[in-house]
Amino acid sequence: MKAFLNFTMIFFGIMHIVVHGQDTKTANKITLLLKDSLYLANLNYPKSVSRCYATNSYNFLWLNDKQNIDQAETALALLTHFNRFGLLSSDYYSKNLTFEGLNQLGGFFSEKHEERKAMFDILMTDGLITFINNIHFGKYNPLYDRSYIDSISIKGFCADKALSNARRQLDFSKAVCEAQPKLKAYQDLQNYLDQFYAVGNPDTTSAEMAKILINMERLRWINTQSSDYVWINIPSYTLAFHHQGNVSEFKVVVGKPKTATPVLESEIDYFSTAPDWRVPQSIFRNEILPEILENSGYLEDNHYSIYDETGGKIIVNSSTLQEINKNPRKYSVRQSSGGHNALGAIVFRFQNSHGVYLHDTPQKQYFNRENRALSHGCIRVQNPKLLATQLLAFDDSNEKIPVLEEAVKAYRKRDFILKQPVPIIITYLTVLIKNGKPIIYDDIYQLDKSLVEMLHHDMRTATTP
């Protein structure tokens, strides 16, 4: 018995030396590859890959004989089913990363295969980091290019950390997919793709599929992770307030093609009743000033007043009008509150660099039109009092609702500051899923073409030998 115990100790001691020696050689191979600038230049996210291996002592992440091969197979399955996520194969090394290669290299222990194994392991890591970044940020994100994403954590998200976390989870695939947007519009498109590839749908055309892919891409550019938000979609002329599992929908009027409503993310901090309208300079110079010059009664008829740079009100006569016409930039125009005011009874404020806001309108008839791209860029909402009431209820401020109703009825100025600002998202989505089917909307600003061209270029690249 004593002899057996001695043999066992010697055997496992030898195996520890052998395995440790293999790990050291592997670490050397991976380290050498990640120090090779020419090799790194071929990776999509070299800095993220290097960080991933640094936290793992430069050992295998996928081909280590001690690692559960099931996770490696699950990881590779994600990369080979890229199309179910509206992605293209060109980013995920589909020619290099195969199940056959995984099974072969995973069983090799000889030194001559170490470099092949190290290269396969690194490509798997880069492919997965690319996959995670693409489902989170998108591939053509106008705000962040690939090198920026590779260098920094953006709003708390970093793909290599997300990958490391997923490797520790029982459900690796689910953990990786957590990087996707949480917005319902995205989930609807994702579910449609899942069904399409599961059972097929002969009614879906290639043009519709291209629309689905580019609009999923647009939704990945949004950083909002909240399940409660105000969402405005320009092409469908709709506003949806998602709150506590409920959805309230409203019609909206958006900007004309020449004065397009911008895509943006912000938060509604407060809203005001009976607002006056501080007319944007462009509207003052191009529209109101010519009317004043032609008709001296235009200001009074439309409840406008002109102010100088110090905020002093100008008495408009022939003399001051000449001075205003010479230097219009030195003057501003306001429209007093009331039923005539362009902002109507309520305006919802949110910070943005475009100077746009969400508001009521006296021109209620516009909501009956099918094409509602009619404004200077701001968004007009139908039934703004209902939206304001719902925001107060969501903010646990029900006691303010009677005050709101009285202020609207009397056109009395009042600010309603939200204790918890509500995210507002303005998107440009030309397809949405309704009752399980894709609904295509007019590309009113002609923004689809450039994205479709990028998509087709990548599709051609992916199929080029």
Q: What layout of secondary structure does this protein have?
A:
Blueprint: H1 2-35, H2 37-40, H3 46-54, H4 69-80, H5 99-106, H6 114-136, H7 146-151, H8 159-167, H9 172-177, H10 184-199, H11 206-220, E1 229-233, E2 238-243, E3 246-255, E4 264-273, E5 277-279, H12 281-294, H13 298-301, E6 304-307, H14 318-326, E7 332-335, E8 346-350, E9 358-359, E10 373-375, E11 379-381, H15 384-394, H16 401-410, E12 414-427, E13 431-434, E14 437-440, H17 448-463
Parallel strand pairs: 1-12, 3-10, 9-11
Antiparallel strand pairs: 1-2, 2-3, 3-11, 4-8, 4-12, 5-7, 6-7, 8-9, 13-14
Protein model, in words:
This protein has helices at 2-35, 37-40, 46-54, 69-80, 99-106, 114-136, 146-151, 159-167, 172-177, 184-199, 206-220, 281-294, 298-301, 318-326, 384-394, 401-410, 448-463; strands at 229-233, 238-243, 246-255, 264-273, 277-279, 304-307, 332-335, 346-350, 358-359, 373-375, 379-381, 414-427, 431-434, 437-440. With 465 residues, the chain is an alpha+beta fold. It has an eight-stranded mixed barrel. Strands 5-7-6 form a three-stranded antiparallel beta sheet. It has a two-stranded antiparallel ribbon with strand order 13-14. Helix 3 crosses helix 6, helix 3 (46-54) packs parallel to helix 8 and helix 10 (184-199) runs antiparallel to helix 11. It is elongated and about 90 Å long. The N and C termini lie far apart (64 Å).
